[in-house]
Amino acid sequence: MTLSFVFEVAMLSTSVIGILVASWMLWRARLQRDLQALSGFAIMMAIWCLGHSALFHGFSTLGVHLILANPLMPTFFLHFATAFVKTGIVSPPWLLNLYKRLPWIYGMSIFIVLLSWVVGAGDVRSSDVMDVFLFLQTRAGLILSIPLLLVLLLMLFCYMGGGSIRVISVALFSLSLVSRHGG
Hints:
Oligomer: single chain
């Protein structure tokens, strides 16, 4: 059993599970708006994994485009996290302002995805270990660093605003998502 086969099985099973979990959350989200954003995160995770599977089946262009759509993943999670945290008894004003600006954050994420598609930020390669994998071009690192910088600014505002441990934890987890899903 090769590493490529194991990776492909993992990506396909994660996609299926992600879609099932997202479907369940959407069904439950009739009463809870924050679950809609969390289901968006699960759907994006499934799409990202399907992109890797597409590479294994010769659909290179489709696979690269699906993988490069990953900036939407942390955006959905940020949406969920802010909706979840702001439901507390006392929400700091900056958190409410951030929540109100989520459409702009989604817009920026979509812009980053489209920009990475236009400039050809990813390339398909092979190696001795993996049959195919996505190789990010140097320009991809520059493009994908934009969300990372935004989350770092969010953390700075949390710290300067005397944010609670819960809020700072959300910011740190968002940072880990952005850095983890760089492609």
